[in-house]
UniProtKB/TrEMBL annotation:
Keywords tagged on the record: Allosteric enzyme, ATP-binding, Cytoplasm, Kinase, Nucleotide-binding, Pyrimidine biosynthesis, Transferase
MF-aspect GO terms: UMP kinase activity
Record entry for activity regulation: Allosterically activated by GTP. Inhibited by UTP.
Residues given in the record as UMP binding sites: G54, D74, T135, G136, N137, P138, F139, F140, S141, T142
Role: Catalyzes the reversible phosphorylation of UMP to UDP.
Residues involved in ATP binding: K12, I13, S14, G15, G55, R59, N163, Y168, D171
Enzyme Commission number(s) from the entry: 2.7.4.22
Gene: pyrH
Entries under HAMAP family matching the protein: PyrH_B
Protein name: Uridylate kinase
Sequence similarity: Belongs to the UMP kinase family.
């Protein structure tokens, strides 16, 4: 096994990816494979924080748009992320991995409130920390939450595990001429309006000089490949 290229990472997992082919709810086969990869990363000595989306249960803008007040719809999305956090935590614990769930909205009965110093202490002790409820504020995506938490815990890189295998010049499902980038700058992502993360998340990542590697979660071993330095997906970073 190769030496890991990163000491501390923030893994962002989309909620839709946890749903598998069904598209909604939880696919425990997928979750089990993801958790096995996380366990392997911990055994390599990598400190892992996780932010998970909630789109497999509820997407505030999409599901509530036009029918609900935006803030309340986003609050429901925060609850959806917590469902995913608890599912991930349970599967990891069954595998013998120590986990702490921290939420930006207090839910003391089953999660710690987010406290930066405690999160870092957990990471240093080899525990996986799963961050729920996004930033705790409406109008901010879980991608933005991932960048914020990565900056706060001083992560070396953000691993963006999605249902697509990299950043393309256009939507590859709609444009057969779309070109996949191996590397691209934050500025180009913003200028071309590419669908890596929303503009707020991309700008925050750029301002804090945190590289983002986007890759497909369809094969969870991609997490380990990235940690070992294999060139997969697309890296978004500063221009050099």
């Amino acid at each position: 096994m190769s030496e890991p290229q990163y000491k501390r990472v923030l893994l962002k997992i989309s909620g839709e990816a946890l749903a598998g082919d069904a598209g909604r709810g939880l696919d425990f086969g997928v979750i089990g494979s993801v958790c096995q990869a996380v366990k392997q990363a911990i055994s390599m000595g990598v400190q892992v924080g996780i932010v998970v989306g909630g789109g497999n249960f509820w997407r505030g803008v999409k599901d509530g748009g036009g029918r609900m007040e935006r803030t309340r719809a986003d609050h429901m999305g925060m609850l959806a992320t917590t469902l995913n956090c608890l599912a991930l935590a349970d599967v990891l614990e069954q595998m013998g991995v120590e986990v702490r769930v921290q939420t930006a909205i207090e839910m003391r009965a089953f999660a710690e409130p987010y406290i930066r110093s405690k999160a870092i202490r957990h990471l240093e002790k080899g525990r996986v920390v799963i961050f729920g409820c996004g930033t705790g504020n409406p109008f901010f995506s879980t991608d933005t939450a991932a960048v914020l938490r990565a900056a706060e815990i001083d992560a070396d890189v953000i691993l963006l595990a999605k249902n697509i295998d990299g950043v393309y010049s256009a939507d590859p499902n709609k444009d057969p001429t779309a070109v996949k980038y191996d590397s691209i700058t934050y500025d180009d992502v913003l200028a071309q309006h590419l669908q890596v993360m929303d503009s707020t998340a991309t700008s925050l990542s750029m301002d804090n000089k945190i590289p983002v590697i986007l890759f497909a979660l369809k094969d969870p071993q991609n997490i380990i490949r990235v940690l070992e330095g294999e060139k997969i997906g697309t890296i978004v970073k500063e221009e050099k």
